[in-house]
Amino acid sequence: MTYEIPVYILLAASALCLFRGLRGPSIPDRVLATDAFASVIISIMVLLSLETNDFLMDIAIVYSVLGFIGTIAVSKYLEGKHLGE
Amino acid sequence: MIGLILIFAGSIISVIGAFGLIRFPDIYSRTHAQTVVNVGGTCLILIGVVFEAPFLSLYSAKSILLIIFIFLTSPAGTHAIARAAYKSGVKPRKLQEDQLEYKIAGVEKPLIRPKEKDYEKVRPSGYRFGKKRFFRKRKIKG
Q: Taking a C-beta distance cutoff of 8 angstroms, is the pair B113, B70 a contact?
């Protein structure tokens, strides 16, 4: 039960990140906000899994990998290249 | 106890970084706030989780793995975003002369400092308010 307060604080942080993602003027702004949102969600998952001893830790690892791949893919697309170049 | 302190500090640092993500004016300065959220917040919380979990368990091993992964990938992702933003034409705020453009094109151009009146033309435009007349300075682009 002691991990409830950091989870609420992190929910506020994720709301701020979503605000920047919704009204970022350019596309890289939205990608940046999505990356920050992913890391905040990862920390929420880790705290929740510490309490319930659940499989959320594995989901956090996979989600960090997917967030990194999405960031790299969108930035390569904005440069006008493919993923291998 | 150490783990709880680290977890609380990490969550507060995450809120500070997310607030900076809103307040900063430019994408190249917002990358700084995003790094604060990524490394400062998440890695501090994960280090606290290592202290909180039972000693030498699979749980803390996964947490250390996640710390190493975030330390490796976060700077690379931020660098790629900033590079893509420059290549897709997002200019920094208050940019007067782009030296990197000359460098990419391979043209050597000496540093020209524009004079004050060249890039900051000020036109006084007044508006009536009661009996007095106030003047307001307004900037013109170009």
A: no
* CA gap A53, A47 in Å, rounded: 10
Supply the Cα-derived Rg of chain B in whole angstroms: 24
- Judged by CB atoms closer than 8 Å, whether chains meet at A13 and B66 is answered as no
Q: How many Cα atoms within 13 Å fall on the side-chain side of residue A11?
A: 7
Of residues B73 and B130, the one with the higher pLDDT is: B73
pTM, entire model: 0.80
Give the residue among B11, B55, B60 at the shortest CA–CA distance from A3: B11
Q: In the beta sheet, which residues pair with residue B124? A: B137
Candidates B38, B70, B82; nearest CB to A36:
B38
Cα–Cα dist B77/B59, whole Å: 26
Q: Return the pLDDT at A1.
A: 67
pLDDT above 80 for A61: yes
Q: How far apart are CA B62 and CA A10, in angstroms?
A: 21
Interchain CB distance below 8 Å, A13 and B14: yes
Give the per-residue pLDDT at B25.
87
What ipTM is given for this predicted complex? 0.87
**CA of B109, closest CA in chain A: separation in Å?**
26
Neighbours of A77 (CB within 10 A): 14
Give the E-state strand segments of B6-129 in sequence order. 121-129
The pair of structure tokens assigned to A54 is 């659940």
